[in-house]
Design a protein that fits this description.
Largest sheet: 4 strands, parallel
CATH topology: Rossmann fold
Strand order of the largest sheet: 4-3-5-6
CATH superfamily: Class I glutamine amidotransferase (GATase) domain
Helix content: 10-25%
Shape: globular
Structural class: alpha/beta
Number of domains: 1
CATH class: Alpha Beta
Strand content: 15-25%
Order of helices and strands: EEEHEHEEH
Length: 122
């Protein structure tokens, strides 16, 4: 829960930092949309994050690859908090891996926009 300078509860977005060089920029862009954001470590416990009460979560990018056994991963219970989650770059790959999706290494590095297909299994 975040408080305004007048002591009122303010809705906010948690940004879980996986070490991206753009994490501060993500926070700034969210704040430019008049939404408070707070950068937190990717390994914050789901219980602590739930107590803080964000209205949404953003998983930042990072320099690691989820195909490595030593890659940083947040706990699966983060995805059970009942709030919307946006994964950016590594954050999206991490989310896919934690949720049982398949992430594989590409022959070429990619950067930029792409299309995303969501299969709801219906």
């Amino acid at each position: 829960m975040a408080l305004t300078d007048k002591g009122r509860v303010q809705e906010w977005v948690a940004i879980l930092d996986f070490g991206s060089q753009y994490t501060q920029l993500i926070a700034r862009r969210v704040r430019e949309c008049k939404v408070y954001s707070e950068i937190l470590p990717y390994d914050i416990s789901p219980e602590e994050l739930s107590r803080k009460g964000p209205k949404a979560i953003i998983l930042s990018g990072g320099p690691a690859t989820v195909t490595s056994d030593k890659s940083p991963i947040c706990q699966k219970r983060i995805f059970e908090l009942g709030v919307p989650i946006l994964g950016i770059c590594y954050g999206m790959q991490s989310m896919a891996k934690v949720m049982g999706g398949e992430v594989s290494r590409s022959q070429e590095r990619e950067f930029g926009r792409t299309d995303l297909t969501v299969d709801r299994g219906e």
